[in-house]
Amino acid sequence: MSADGLSPEPLLKVEDIHTYYGKSHILHGVSLEIGHGEVVGLLGRNGVGKSTTLKAIAGLVHPSAGRVVFEGRPITNMPAHRLARRGIAYVPEDRRIFPLLTVTENLRTGLDRHGVTPARKKELLDKVYGYFPVLAERRNQAGGTLSGGEQQMLAIARAMMLEPKIILLDEPTEGLMPRMVSQIREIIEILHSERVAVLLVEQNVPLTLETSRRIYIIEKGVVRHHAPAAELRADDAPIHQYMGV
Amino acid sequence: MELLHAIPFDQLLIQTINGVVTGMILALVASGLTLIFGIMDVVNFAHGELFMLGAYVGVLVLSATGNFWLALVGATLLIALLGAVIHVTTLRPLLGRDPLTTILATFGISLVLQNYALWQFGPVARKIQEPFTGYFTLFYLDYPWYRLVIAGLSAAIIAALYLFLKFGTYGIWIRATTQDRVMAQAMGIPVPWVLTAVFAIGSGMAAASGVLFGPLVGVNHAMGLDWVLKAFIVVVVGGMGNLGGSILAAIFISLLEAYASLWVSPAQAVIVSFVALILTLLFRPTGLFVSTPR
User: Fold this and answer.
1) A:153-192 residues touching chain B, CB 8 A cutoff
2) How far does B26 lie from chain A, in Å, by closest CA?
3) What are phi and psi of A216, to 5 degrees?
4) pLDDT tens track for A221-230
């Protein structure tokens, strides 16, 4: 493994986690690390456990074995709402916008935390409305009435309201038009410039290779390959091998 | 037409007022029930007993302090606390299980509470003295002001609940939890505590209606049964979990019964509620007032 340039204590460390869904064994010991402000890609075919890995980090699935360590402290089995407040934001594959809440109310679910002053709330809202003008236009519209691309923007904006240290992005470009895909790329760059770490799960290999610094490739619930993105850009044989593309 | 001519206008008006008054109290009971169902997917069979215990706490506080309003607030808060305890000890461990388990659990709680009340307070009905005894003249009747006050207070409590859900921070938490429990957690909302709070609010509303309604009937250990049965009819007719629908249905059902009792005895008039329930289940199983946003 090439752990080039990582700070001695990574932001997030996943150590050999196993999960079960009923009787089926989904993750067979996944391990990975993400540094502060680092963008890391997680590639793999459908159904190999990429989404489950994100859910396990977010506390929505509890591993039966292994550890998750965040900022040096073990967080395995901590309830999801406490992880969210510690700075782990999750953007699910199906976006999961609260359909009957307005755009602003959707954002407020992440804003109304203990210790956020009204001035800070306004600042955060203004910031995302600056990044996503379309959300500002539709701020009083119910989340369920937005288009797929707008919902994806809202899901990411909502996660940003938590002022997270890491955002777990599950297939943000799925089903989006090319114009929207390039907008997602811009958002990831913005997050990177704000020193927010990103763990990106994608089927879109070129986008992942371009935005990420390091890549993990997962197969049948285990990490099979780990390399700097630059290395895979030069030689994509491992991607062909594990993803069959 | 012949039938209508037989009913004098004054009687019709009196029954309309009666129907609206009963409807508002029923709406208060039912909105607690529908809130708990809509948000938690829990059919709370103990709701009527919380209504009854609220009335008893009202009796006790009233006899200790002599202040009706203190009794109303005290009963609401105490039963809300009891609701929170019931939720944490009984319902939270059942989270994610078959809905049948919560039905059995709340049914068990209702039996325990009812028999506790019988053991503690005995079978003789107690009386809550209304805060004022004024009357106004309605045709040939002396109509008690207090009845109008209960209707107004019930409406005010329901309106406060609506405003809280619509604009309050915790109201947004509750609505987010209703719409997507998992995502609410991922956004940092403490979902188990939101559910406890909702159960406490619903319980407090049941207690408030018990105290408000106490002066009109007597307070006894079985008084919850009647009301919870009617509240269930209202919740089904209004659309399960639909707050606005429940309020409309409460008034609708109560008016229906009030008008029916112009022709038949009040005991027989109850039949029309059940007819409305059966027709709703047959033809509009999602509720008569489904388009109302909650």
Assistant:
1) 158, 162
2) 27
3) -110, 135
4) 889 889 898 8
